[in-house]
């Protein structure tokens, strides 16, 4: 039995993610859409397991894993197969180390891959094509461990009520451990990506959904649903659903990935808003027995998982070839096309189901040979791309080389600066130090030519706050030359005024400072408006 209006929750999660990826400047908090998926999945999976026990007095663990396999794996494999040929349209930087990415995807370990390689969800010059699969990895980890846990509890439970009680307590304990791991960890990490990607810290929305599943069923109408059906009229039910959706929109518009609030309370609030929507949708199903869910809504919900998988690599590729709006349009066309192929053809075919579409396709001549040949060709292309792909992209190589040149130059200049400082009445050496970010790092050679003898201190993703700390450190160690050039500003510019005021205030006596105007060339970045305003 399909519960009407649950589809709207899936659509909401996907919508927020797409808006975030396509128009990050306008919807900086769309990443909360992932937590909508997490909470709903935790609710749905747990509720179905409990209802299976209620009906059969046991849980078929192998059957559970088989259903999850047929739903999860085919779209993932199809995503890898069909996106790799498109990588020939972009430079090789985008497939650097692609073998590791693919291994992470197929092994459902993308979140750990990104953690180990120092990946950042937002601040990547060359975004990984499959970084978005981090959420699928967390989901699969939950499915495996939680499926085993509920199955084990079902072996101990003597009644459905007892199983619900044990699931509730275990869910609550797991939620508290995960939530406080993120809450405390957010104060300790240097990059929020560490707690964002981690299965331990970001799994708690699933357990909030699991807690809800013990009191709100899917196919079974629980006493709470019956009671709310009596208390809430249609208007109040819609208000609760709309309230949850509206709150998610507020988070989407006003909370950014770099805000500490997102990690302390943001993900929790997004999950609670989703719970309100789930509860309202379940009651709304009871209140609309004669209303059919529109087919378009069902279609958008059915394909939401596969669209999530396909959209990111397609968007990254198309955004390198054309304008953002056209890239979005192409991404949606290809994503929904392949998502439909996956959901309506590939997945039921592999699962051995018989659908009207498959009844039409199976009699076609040589259909199996065509599918096998197509799969073989695509697999060969994946192998070829993986074989030809460099381990390190040209962009990253250039940054590394310039970093080494910078280090060598700075070592030789330290002695010269010390000798000059001894001759100066204030102990200040003549010369120039440029503290910059990746732009200055890549331009190291050109800067050395334009400013002979200048000390270039540049690093990828450097912020103005960090530049301030470097300036103070060099001053305390008597290595700061008379002229200081600050060439930062695009990375984490939210506290522009405070950072600039601080760095000017901290400039030691006898030194001069030059501030290089920051520039953000990508108008789709959320930092663009801030940079333009302050510059």
UniProtKB/TrEMBL annotation:
Q: Which GO terms describe its molecular function?
A: acyltransferase activity, transferring groups other than amino-acyl groups
**Membrane-spanning parts:** 7-23, 29-49, 69-90, 134-154, 166-189, 195-218, 238-255, 261-284, 296-318, 324-346, 367-389
Keyword Oxidoreductase recorded = no
Locate the Acyltransferase domain: which residues?
A: 4-336
Which Pfam families did the record assign?
Answer: Acyl_transf_3 (PF01757)
State a GO cellular component annotated for this protein: membrane
- Organism's domain of life? Bacteria
> Per the record's keyword annotation, is Acyltransferase included, yes or no?
yes
| BP GO terms, sorted | lipopolysaccharide biosynthetic process
The alphabetical list of record keywords is:
Acyltransferase, Membrane, Transferase, Transmembrane, Transmembrane helix
Task: Provide the protein name.
Answer: Acyltransferase
Which species is this UniProt entry from? Streptococcus mitis 13/39
Q: Could you read off the lineage of the organism from its UniProt record? A: Bacteria, Bacillati, Bacillota, Bacilli, Lactobacillales
